[in-house]
Amino acid sequence: MKHVPLPFWAKWNADLKAAAPANFMLLGELLDGDPSLVAQAWTGGGFTSMFDFPLGFAMGDVFCRGDSPAKLAAVLTNDRRYPDASKLVTLLDNHDLPRIMSVCGGDVEKVRAALAFMLTTRGVPSIIWGTEVGMDGPKEPDNRKSMTFTSHPLKGELAFWLDARKKNPALSDGVPVVLSATTDGVVLGRIAGSQLAVIVVGRDGVRPTVPGGAWAEASKELVPPLGWKRPSIGVFVSAVKPGAYVGLVAANEPQWRTGAKKRAITFEGPAGSFVVGSGPEFGDWNPAKALRLPVALELPIGGAFEFKAIRREGEKTIWDSKVNETLFVDEVGKGSVVLRPSFPR
Question: Does the residue 303 lie in any domain?
């Protein structure tokens, strides 16, 4: 839809809605990893929902290419920009992109972890033909080849996680919450009025631990049929207790939807340098919107961000050669961050 102006879609979709049943769904596809553009297309085009390419690309980067799990939390922090992120349609495979099996270099364990995450995070999961038999395809036309009806363990994996969504309200409808995010791992929570769930994602086979407090009740691990050979992900649920967590939902859902509770954090770095990163506060990774250091930002509590320093030489942008820095904003954490970039010469 990116090649058609939004006013066209707004009128087209308005006319369709006027003539369609009340539950008619208009799903938009904007093949872009920028949450700000997806959100703009959603509201400006009058769609019911959008494909979640930002999270899809992040899952490929984290589970297949070894990027920091914090990228998942940083993308989810942008959920506050959507009308209702629970309606986003999540995906790992798409006929216009390399198949997830090819993205993961044929590593079934990596694909299993990515599928487990997609099927337990917020949104409406989308599965296209061939994912259940490990179909590969690095580019067209192989990524959209005919279905092969063979036996494959991924079919049982998909069935397991879809059944888990059906049986656990926290996994199907739970409000998402970022509980912690570091370069090496993230802990994500989901709250329904009757259940808690915790999804942990680490790297190199080391998973973060489930936090204490109310979240410690999410202690039953859901283990797929094949178990885990390299446990980079873990999914934990509590018992279903009607009405037990209504207060926790009420305390977290407004913050997640609006980012209303914020903290001021100061960023410092070398003279003449800038900072850019995920989220509108950091310019959505657009160097033209980078902020000159030092700078004080109001950031949402419970949000996770990736960012790095850049410098400018005329019209040329020089990026810090180190990996992205990560920040999780809690209520009592540090109030300043010092960037120490390494710029290539």
Answer: yes
Tokens of 65: 């290419």
Q: CA quadruple 219, 120, 234, 307: dihedral positive or negative?
A: negative
Tokens found for residue 308: 């790095």
How far is Cα 185 from Cα 313, in angstroms, rounded to an integer? 35
pTM confidence score:
0.95
Tell whether 179 is covered by a domain.
no
What range defines the domain where residue 295 resides? 262-338
Four-residue CA torsion sign, 215, 219, 225, 226 = positive
Among candidate residues 87, 55, 60, 92, the one with its CA nearest the CA of residue 74: 55
**Residue that terminates a domain, selected from 127, 152, 171:** 171
Contact 234, 207 (CB under 8 A): yes
pLDDT tens digits, one per residue of 317-330: 999 999 999 999 99
Instruction: Give 320's contacts (C-beta < 8 A, 6+ positions apart).
Output: 308, 309, 310, 339, 341, 342, 343
Cα–Cα–Cα angle for 69, 67, 182, nearest 5°? 35
Q: Does one domain contain both 151 and 42?
A: yes
Question: Rounded to a whole number, what is the distance in angstroms from the first to the last CA of the chain?
Answer: 41
Per-residue pLDDT reduced to its tens digit, 34-53: 999 999 999 999 999 999 99
